[in-house]
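Handout, section B. The chain below has 293 residues.
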Amino acid sequence: MDPALLREREAFKKKALATPSIEKKKRDDTQFKDESKKSKSKSSSSANAQPKIDATNYKTMTGSSSYRFGVLARIVRHMRARHQDGDDHPLTLDEVLDETNQLDVGNKVKQWLQTEALQNNPKIECTPDGKYIFKAVYKIKDKKSLLRLLKQHDLKGLGGILLEDVQESLPHCDRALKHLAQEILYITRPTDKKKILFYNDKTAKLDVDEEFVKLWRATAVDAMDDAKIEEYLEKQGIKSMQDHGPRKPIAPKRKKASQKRRQFKKPRDNEHLADVLETYEDNTLTQKGVSIK
């Protein structure tokens, strides 16, 4: 071989050995596969360690919030039914759970009912001795107290009372409403079709002539506004509507700025010498044609 080529080859080798180089190693996937298998085995073992929900132990589990609120709802319904049947004596928590067939609830659920749920429920009232009773909207026990409540609402102008509130508050409500059929007026609310109870004040009744009643029922003004009604009455020659109804506020008129030029007033000093003309040329005073030196 040519000795020049050999020298260049040796120089190239020396240069290549002098420069550092980074070698890429192949990735070992076996380690990652082993770690993934271990994590899967741990998750499966933890899942198997958790207790399964079945028909025998689902009541004893305290982690389900829906179960706890189901217990509370059942208690509230039972307390309402007791109150409507006339049972108004308070009960302890164990007695309530016994009457609702829920003695198998856990200790955590009992603690939650006693410290939070029953204390803060708007339909349950806690007595000073730690017992519970249903909290009705109105404290009425019989038909006399209901009639008294309706009279108070009528006198104070508070309006009517919802029938569902009366049914919830008054024990044996249907029997009491039958006895007070002549003393109560029922009006159905058009928005939600709920019935409202009013006191039937017989002293406020007036005898109206049948002709006025017929005219009132024959005249339909549902689709007419106040302007159309006023126009119709004006055509019939009736002007009694002018002084009735809400009046529109009249805006006050603003005064326009006067465009006259301002006249400067003369000074009012020495008004008592208005008839005296003083001249300083010849030191004379003139008053009413008479000159004085």
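Note. Confidence is low (pLDDT under 50) at residues 47-63. Compare this with the example in section A.
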